Every structure is written in C-alpha cells, then in structure tokens.
Amino acid sequence: MMRKLFIYTFLLLISFVSRASMVLIPMDDTSQVNHLKAYGITYWTLDKDYKVSWLLNYRGGSFLLPDREEIRRECKIRGVSFEIITDGEANAILDEISSPSQNKETVILEKAPKIAVYSPPGKQPWDDAVTMVLTYAEIPFTTIYDEEVLNDALLLYDWLHLHHEDFTGQYGKFFGAYRNAPWYLEQKREAEELAQRLGYSKVSEEKMAVADKIRDYVVGGGFMFAMCSATDTFDIALAAEDVDICEPMFDGDPSEPNYQSKIDYNNSFAFKNFILERSPMVYEFSDIDTTNDRKIPFEQDYFTLMEYSAKWDPVPTMLCQNHTQLVKGFMGQTTAYRADRVKSNVLVMGMNKLNNEARYIHGTKGKGMFTFYGGHDPEDYQHRVGDAPTVLDLHPNSPGYRLILNNVLFPAARKKKQKT
Predict the structure, then answer these.
(1) Above pLDDT 70, what percent of the chain?
(2) Which of 63, 179, 260, 414 has the largest count of CB atoms under 10 Å?
(3) In this model, does residue 10 exceed pLDDT 50?
C-alpha cells in the first residue's frame, strides 16, 4: 500500500514538473499587438511582488513572468500578447541568452519603482507624452510640482520625469508670439504668485532652487528622465546659477552685462560650450537645440538607436530595447541636441547622422542617472499649442514611446556593476 502511494505521489510530482510553466511576453515586431500596455503588465506584476526577467535583445526585449492565473487574466483584459512556455523551454531561452556568443542578457526586475511626474496644476494630460503613456499603460504615478520638490518630496520616489518646463524663469520663451495671449498672462501670473508664496522675489530664483533640489536628488541616487525643453533649460539653469540671464519682461530688471562669459559648464549634466539666445523675441534658449537649423524632410526624419554589448553595458542596452533600431523623428521646443554640445562622458544612444544631432542621451551624476530625450510627442510630428491630443490606441506599438517606458522600468532592475 505504501509502495503504491509512493509511486502515485512520484507520478503526480513528475506530472506537475512537466506542466510547470512561465509567461513569456514577446516584444518583437510580429508577435506583440500592444507593446505599450506590455510594459504596464510588467509593472503590474512587479507591484504584485513577483520578480520579472527582462530578456535584453531577445525578441525585442521580451519579458519572462511567472505563470499565474491572475497574470494571464490581466494580459487578456489589457489586450497584451503572451505565450505560455514550459520551464524547460524557459531554461533553454535563458541558456541561449547566457551564451558568450550571444549579444543578449537577462536582467532581473525586482520591485515596481515609485514614479513622480513634475507638472504644474491644471496641465492637460496631453501636454506631456510621459503622463499620457503612463496613463495608457496603466502605470501609476504621482504628480508633484515646485512646493513638493522644495519640501524634499523627491526622496519618496525612484524615478522623476520632467517635460515641457522652463527652469530658467523665462516662461518658455513664448513672449515673442504669445505675450498678449490670455493663457500666457495667466501662467505668468500664477508662476509669480507661486514664487512669492514660496519666499522668492523672482520666478527665476524659485526655479533655480527647484533645479538644485532635482540635481541633489540625482546625485544622491535618483533617476531622472526629461524630454523637450526640460532637458536644456535644466542644464542652462544649473550652468547659470547666480547669474541673471533674464530680460526685464521676465523678471522686472535687466540681465547681467556679458552674462555669457559667466556660464559655468562644469555645473551642467549633459551639455557644454553652449551659447545662450539673448533675444526675448526668439523662441529658443540656446544653440543646444537644432530645431531652427533642421533641413530634414518629414519622410526622412528618423534616428538610429545605438547597439551596445548587453553583457558589458546592460544599462544603455535596457534603455534602447525596441522592435526596430530606426525610430521616427518628432519635433518639440527642444527637438534634438547639436552633437558638439554634448559632453564627452555622456552616451549618445540615438542619433540622426544626416543632421549630426543627438536625440536620446544618457549619463551618470553622482550616484544617480539621467536620460534626456529630445522632442515633445513621439507620435505627433510637430505638436503646436492647442493641437488635439494623441490617441495612443492608434499607436500601441510606437517605437518612440517604447523608449520612454524602457526608462520607467529601468529603476526596477537588480543593480549590476557596469563593466565599461
């Protein structure tokens, strides 16, 4: 009797082992019907305290999840393609990835990062591509602004996003075209009232204090992702600390004489040797941005993602995961960066060689990291004030938006020492 029970138990165990399985979320071009929501499933799984394997350079950067009924159900509800594979098949994939001959790597994602989006009250969701894609992918985030930053709320978050913001105190350089527009006058009034309430005599001084707090957050180990004008204005503000670069219509008094010579490029994160745009009538902050010099036809406006060694350089490899290396370009107040204005210690991960411009860059500062991504909305080529919002249901496989979501998941990765 005991012998029969042992045999029965053994056969049950063998049967269970043979049926043990994993959920593979493919991220290649042909298998995945909704790349963007796939990131949301991965985040949701991490938030349920499961670990996830990110398979770098395997089928477009696929995800390997534990097989649970709730995970299968969530994939079906959100319309995300998935495959059920046996443990044996999963181990075969992991063995293939670990081979020294393969430019692939497995990165363990351990914990859902806490996400903060820096955005003023009253801003519409479509004003910010990251807010839009986080909402679409169903990834939770908290909106914060100057008061929270100055009160050290950043310490609560693993990941911070900055978008269409002006840290120089020049109100986005909209003065030339919109100085009499009601929305511009209202935003200027609100910014001045906020600065006064927080104890600053000028908006530029208050924004400088915010930029300092964000710098300290990154240096202390935080991860910052910025797009559009938040990228160059953040760096300009840091380089121009204690230098008045604002004209009277912005802060009520003249700028400092010869202020260009007082810029300290050692203080900036990504950019060097830039020349500031002095005229308040010009919709530009400096010569970092290439928008006014671009002569690329719409049909040819693409940038190429660089390829890295997954085993030696997992960080940029993670940030560049995609189902294509060629990404459609898009414009913004800050569209792209002149290559000769990018510091030599900053990685250029996406480049348009026709125009010698960097579109997607990454670097380290202290214990933290930052990524700058030029342009406003990856699926709205030339977004203008008042344009209708992008409908992401029409772009579920957007390579440009995938780059944003790579950055969202990046802080979840188990940290490995970078070898180069």
Answers:
(1) 91
(2) 63
(3) no
